[in-house]
Amino acid sequence: MAESVSPMTGKTCLVTGATSGIGRATALKLARAGARVVIVGRSAERCGAVVESIRRETGGAEVEYIAADLGSQAEVRRLAAEFVGRHSRLDVLINNAGALFALRRESKDGIELTLALNHLAPFLLTNLLLETLQKSAPSRIVNVSSDAHQDVKAFDFDDPLARHRRPQYGQSELMSLGMCLTMPWAHPAVVQYAQTKLANLLFTYELARRLDGTGVTANAVHPGFVSSNFGAGNGSLGFFMRLWSRVFGISAAAGAKSVLELACSPGVRANGQYYSHGKVVSSSPASNDQAAAERLWTLSEELTSIRGELRPE
Ligand SMILES: NC(=O)c1ccc[n+]([C@@H]2O[C@H](COP(=O)([O-])OP(=O)(O)OC[C@H]3O[C@@H](n4cnc5c(N)ncnc54)[C@H](OP(=O)(O)O)[C@@H]3O)[C@@H](O)[C@H]2O)c1
Asked: Rounded to an integer, what distance in angstroms lies between the CA atom of residue 225 and that of residue 270?
């Protein structure tokens, strides 16, 4: 894939989770390509510092921020309203913000936080911005998923909020360390993360089906194993993840390449595809289960109290 990004002059892009890692690298490249870029992160201070650094690195690109904690649905709604209040168009929405939590936590809305942040926030934000995306068509939605989605065989509709799946989830750092040292792949936080990355794909494919013919496309991407801040603040689990990614991971800029390809490349006409390393790849059978995708859509509408305007055919 070419290192340079196609010109984006006149385009407006919204990148969530752009204060570090893949999101920051993506925002920088978009700004360099001439786009007007709006970045999102939790802290106004961190967002402001990134905006300043991108402006410096690009010689004054049009970059701004909206600070919002995407773990809170009220904040997602405020973000969408603020964005629409400031901008009349949205050419590219990149749902990138994501995390995992070694100990089970709940959002302000009483929803397990990995699901709230990694899946419900992009679901809600995308639905709230659909009108603007449709007005700006051709426009693109890029959801940052992960090959980690393959670690689970199906979306767990019996326990989507991970209340019952693993009694030890959320109990102690000592237990988390024990899991890291013995069966890291079965760590409840890793399993719940995989659930949410599967949800990203089910959502993307269902969204693409519902958007068919509107001029708005939705695709998902695996950025690769990237050395970033991912896992920070998660005790031993975060320590091991970051250690591994420092040794074996690629740079955030390299991780942003497929995201940028989907966001900018004029050659990409895909809708409902999964990309990795610059090309379309297959995702797991579970992610291609259309009945599960429709069921997840309905569950997500219930959990976010939104009735999306997009209905199945
Ligand atoms: N790193 C990898 O190997 C890898 C592999 C596959 C997929 N991914 C996916 O790539 C995406 C980006 O990960 P990364 O590696 O770049 O991680 P990162 O360096 O930890 O960046 C995460 C970004 O998300 C933001 N964020 C976290 N919680 C948030 C919240 N509640 N509200 C708003 N923003 C929030 C962070 O901003 P603040 O902290 O400033 O709020 C930060 O900008 C994630 O979706 C992840 O699942 C990563």
From this structure: 23
Total number of domains constituting the chain: 1
Write out the residue range of the structural domain in which residue 78 sits. Answer: 12-302
Residue 309 lies in a domain: no
275 is catalytic: no
Nearest CA to ligand 1 atom 8: 146
Rounding to the nearest 10 degrees, give the CA dihedral for residues 17, 20, 23, 27: 110
CA angle 8, 276, 120 (to 5 degrees): 80
Question: Global pTM?
Answer: 0.95
pLDDT value, residue 308: 62
Residue 18 covered by a domain: yes
42 CB within 6 A, ligand 1: yes
- Residue 179 resides in a domain: yes
Return the SS3 of 37: strand
**211: confidence class by pLDDT, cuts 50, 70, 90:** very high
